[in-house]
Amino acid sequence: MSISPSIKRLWSSPDTLGIEWNDGSSSEFASLWLRDNLREDRDPHSGQRLVDIADLPADPKIKSARSDNGAVTVAWETEPRSATFEVEWLRRHSADRPAQQKVRPRLWLEGASLDAHRDFAWTTYPEAKEDHAARARWLRRLLEDGIALMRQVPNVDAGILDAAALVGRVSETNYGLVFDVRSVPQPENLAYSDLGLGLHTDNPYREPVPGFQVLHALIASPDGGDSLFGDGFAIAEHLRRTAPEAFRRLSETPVPFHYRSKDAELYAERPLLQLGCGGELRAVHYNSRSIAPLRLDAQSARGFYQAYRQFAALLREARFHLRLRLGDGDLVVFDNQRTMHGRTPFSSARYPRHLRGCYLTRDSVFSEGALLARET
Predict the structure, then answer these.
(1) Any idea of the CA torsion for 284, 290, 295, 296, to the nearest 10 degrees?
(2) What is the mean pLDDT of each run of 10 residues along the chain (376 residues)?
(3) Who contacts 52 (Cβ-Cβ below 8 Å, separation ≥6)?
(4) Residue 33 neighbours by CB under 8 Å, 6+ apart
(5) Dihedral angle of Cα 135, 216, 363, 373, to the nearest 10 degrees
(6) Rounded to an integer, what distance in angstroms lies between the CA atom of residue 264 and that of residue 291?
(7) Which of 15, 198, 227, 325 is the most exposed place for a label (fewest CB within 10 A)?
(8) C-alpha dihedral sign at 164, 168, 172, 173
């Protein structure tokens, strides 16, 4: 039997295919998993499955397995056709390999020690529009850092939509395709006031929560209204290290969020810190202005509020704040489920301030980055 260069030993039983790799690691593949992944059972153009699990044998048995020319061929006890799997495909999809990640986040905790102009990705609107390789690099940094910036965006109302189209797909909400962040009398949202805003994420009461947010400075205030950003993942991981019980409570307690206005009634429940299947952070949802009364018994409420206060206190620490004053025509894009944002107060009576914003669907931003990576 000819052994593939990457395989040290191949073995099989009726229920399992086993491979010992040359690097000393080993992988096992269940016979049903192998039967479920036959290349012949997928459409050659789209790659989508042509069969359903109910179409497969309930308990397929491996008769024999051999390796030759970079592939493993499996014969079944009760089926006339054998199955062939590329060795590299098996290696890539084995359970002992790390799960495929879109982009690995690069955490930044001490935001105050960073320089937004030096430590984060910048591009210009003309460069992003004309140079696909430059836009691919900029988008990758956006996905890694959770924030990236752009200069020379046309200082007109439609400028934000032209720039956003280079990043992802705009998501329409009750605010419309875009929303204007400026002071108005009796605002339905405190974002439309002169008040400073602490670090938060937007719209946790929405299904789904907006994935990325874009803000374009049409009129920047020369005094006040500085933008604040914080890496919610890094701050949450700091809490996990220093106060694991508080982290656990915030990741397990469902929190109701509610927003109502004359044209919208929105409600959703989710933990402040949302974890993935492996316990990794997947999202931060923090907006104290829109938290509704929690339905917790007295003992649970005391534990939750203690943890909630600990996290809120961290968000107030200036060392975690990246502070930036956007100029006219500057644009910032950030991950609304990771990068928290706020602002310092300002006086619109002294200096007008006008930012225009929109939301991008999360999957479209990752898709755009992946498509550009294919080209480059």
Answers:
(1) 60
(2) 70 97 94 96 92 94 94 95 94 81 89 97 98 97 98 96 98 94 68 83 97 96 91 98 98 97 95 96 96 96 98 98 96 98 87 93 97 89
(3) none
(4) none
(5) 0
(6) 16
(7) 15
(8) negative
Question: How far apart are alpha carbons 170 and 85 in whole angstroms?
Answer: 40
Two tokens, residue 279: 């316990």
Asked whether 339 and 146 are in contact (CB, 8 A), the reply is yes
Q: Provide the phi-psi class of 364: left if phi over 0, else alpha when psi is between -120 and 50, else beta.
A: alpha
Amino acid residing at 19: I
Taking the complete model, does pTM exceed 0.85, yes or no?
yes
Rounded-to-integer distance, Cα 161 and Cα 150, Å: 13
Name the residue among 360, 14, 346, 359 with its Cα closest to residue 193.
346
Contact at 8 Å (CB) between 285 and 204? yes
Specify the 3-state DSSP secondary structure of 233.
helix
